[in-house]
Amino acid sequence: MSILFNEQAGIFKLDALDTSYIIGIFDEDKFVSHLYYGKKIIDSDVNYLYGPLYQVRPSVLPGQAGRIMDAVPFEYPTYGCGDYREHCLEVETADGYHACDLRYESHKIYPGKTHLNGLPSTFEREDGDCNTLELVCRDKVLKLKVTLLYTVFEHLNVITRAALITNEDEKAVYLKRAMSGCLEFDHQNFDVLTLHGSWERECGPVRTPLRQGKVTTGSTRGESGPTDNPFLAVISSDVTEDTGEVFAMNLVYSGNFLGVAEGHHFRGSRIVMGINPVNFSWKLGQGESFTAPEVVMVYSDQGLGKMSRTFHDLYRRHLIRDVYPDTLRPILVNNWEATYFDFTVKKLTEIAAEAAKCGIELFVLDDGWFGNRNDERRGLGDWFVNEEKVPGGIGRLAKEINHLGMKFGLWIEPEMVSPDSELFRAHPDWAIQIPGRHRSLFRHQYVLDWSRKEVRDHIYGMIHQVLSGANVEYIKWDMNRTLTETASAALPADRQGELCHRYVLGVYEIMGRLRDDFPSLLLENCSAGGSRFDPGVLYYSPQIWGSDDSDAIERIKIEMGASMCYPLSTIGAHVSAVPNHQTGRITSLETRGYVAMAGTFGYELDIARMSEDEKAVIRKQVDLYHKYHGLVKDGDLYRIEDSLGNPDYACWMVVSKDKKEALLTYIQIHALPGYFGAARRLRLKGLQEETVYETKVISVSAEVRNEDVHREGADGTEKTYAALNLTGSALMNAGYWMDRLSGDYMGMMIHLQAK
């Protein structure tokens, strides 16, 4: 059993693969205290970890009990009884009082994992590789019970946390803050790593020194958001990709969140993560419970790379469900950047026909197929087919696409409504709004109140009817607008603070119904790009559109940032047209393909207008995808260099679990003058030192000159590269000399195979 309880000492010891997490029931007053988190301790007797806590026991210094509360490293700190640091739980009583004091009451340890009601969470697989501790705490004055849930994944460096809060009093109480987890450290020698950005530049790593005070990340947008991802890590100041300690948190939630790293006045630090308390309140009547979302905690003693690979392994095997962990995703072509709203069935089938000839497997019809949706000003909420644009309906179009040998997919944005729509004219109160206040429009749309069952059922009924009448095998679920003026016409005044969380629960319910009713459907989420890129969404859809910025060079930053905690197989990535529609950059078709292959892979352009040479390149890319995407999907990612740390080039590699195969991708962002100044030595990672690898260039970018695609060696002929046989020790220690490429934005893919 990976969870042990020393009853005499009152200590719980939780052991993951290389990790120990230790909790103490401190003093006769039964404070639940955090004693240790980090590299595995093999000792069974760890009583000494109480250490300096013995000096501040309330039973020894009863006259200082209130002051002592600000020094105890609590597992689940509360507000109002003397702990002034960042806290997890704040409660308001019916009389308006704010104080909570939790003490240990009981516990149970059992194999497996508890499902969180209404919320996504990681799960146990059939091999029974996790165990759970339930710690029951109670505030006797409030008659409030808090059950702290800890699950240990024995074969990973992962421990998850959640909290279940139950009111057992006759009077209602109001939760003003209900965070998911807390970590305590006895020093502040950390940097804080978070993922920030904006629309079209999501998931940029930001590293901030921790001092006394607070470093925060969070969202109040109603979604996890493009500016802040629900990820926070405290890292030793010497951390690199391969060295140093990392303590990371990732919240399995898709709504408002808050992560805080606080350096406090005792020169220690506290990290908390959970639902953002801004505009949050939850009324608990007698016997009612509230579940705080799950937070995933990952420990690494080998830098950011090991942290990322741990997250990837957990999410691929214990969060993404059904067949998707073991199934290659189809290569798709989406019509959006090819046609936008201006399409006909003839145009769509022309694109699909040419795509099918290139080996592309899925055609996706994007925005504009429903209601009076001829531009972004109208039609959202009217999920019935516009047969003027799609004669015969989606069923007929799907059959035409299927006859070409392709699957068919469809775009929806079910959470939104346009003022110019039949739905809004019939039910204006279904939009989120504050009575008497101006309703903000964004992208000419409002947000539907998905806290209301009748709204969810109506929207889902229309979408279900469309999907039931056509062979739709893929859905792109979009969300292009954040929440403002948050109020619900269906909630009483003392429950308005519940709207944002109830909204998220409603989204989860409908995504779950969609998956249950259409189990073979491939669901890809999108939120104005990667705005809702979080583990909560991954529970329902195995891939999420990485960003609306499809420029290859910008996408390197976004994809490598997202890879801090999300597997490459979850990052929706496409090859788009040049000049790029977002940046105007011209990049070779090969380079665009290399970057998109570090994701789910697809195309978003008009293939029917491409030259035969370009279509030949696409056919080669399709072949490369089928040969190597299994490796990219399941292998271990090593970031060799990215464009955040080096403005001249980016490089990453994926290594198979058995270390017998690897795929290296190199992108030259800026060409440097002179041969020796431009050639680079790359020290590879993740290989077996004694193994000999055949190292072979399998693809090289062509330059783009006046849109003519060609590649030349020094003598004017196409350049070829000889395979090298090198040991893993040579490749990792001495390095691989990357040949000089002739221009900006060029790239190369190299395959390594154990001999």
In short:
The chain has 755 residues and is of the alpha+beta class.
Describe the structure.
The chain has 755 residues and is an alpha+beta fold. The chain folds into 3 domains: 245 residues, Distorted Sandwich (Beta-galactosidase, Chain A, domain 5), CATH 2.70.98; 193 residues, Alpha-Beta Barrel (TIM Barrel), CATH 3.20.20; 116 residues, Golgi alpha-mannosidase II (Immunoglobulin-like). Helix content is 19%, strand content 31%. The strands form 8 sheets. The chain has a 9-stranded antiparallel β-sheet. It has a 9-stranded parallel β-sheet with strand order 28-27-26-25-22-21-20-30-29. Strands 5, 10, 13, 16, 17 and 18 form a 6-stranded antiparallel β-sheet that branches. Helix 7 runs parallel beside helix 8 and helix 10 packs parallel to helix 11. The radius of gyration is 27 Å and the shape is globular. The two termini are 40 Å apart.
Element layout with pairings:
Elements: E1 3-6, E2 11-15, E3 19-26, E4 31-39, H1 65-68, E5 89-93, E6 103-111, E7 130-139, E8 144-153, E9 158-167, E10 173-185, E11 190-196, E12 204-209, E13 213-219, E14 228-236, E15 246-251, E16 257-263, E17 269-275, E18 282-284, E19 289-300, H2 303-318, E20 332-334, H3 336-339, H4 345-357, E21 362-365, H5 393-403, E22 407-412, E23 416-417, H6 422-426, E24 446-447, H7 453-468, E25 474-477, H8 499-517, E26 522-525, H9 535-538, E27 543-545, H10 552-562, E28 571-572, E29 575-576, H11 589-596, E30 602-604, H12 612-634, E31 636-641, E32 649-655, E33 661-668, H13 675-678, E34 680-682, E35 692-700, E36 703-705, E37 708-710, E38 724-727, H14 728-734, E39 736-738, E40 746-754
Parallel strand pairs: 20-21, 20-30, 21-22, 22-25, 25-26, 26-27, 27-28, 29-30
Antiparallel strand pairs: 1-2, 2-3, 3-4, 5-10, 6-7, 7-8, 8-9, 9-19, 10-17, 10-18, 11-12, 11-14, 13-16, 14-15, 15-19, 16-17, 23-24, 31-32, 32-33, 33-40, 34-39, 35-38, 35-40, 36-37
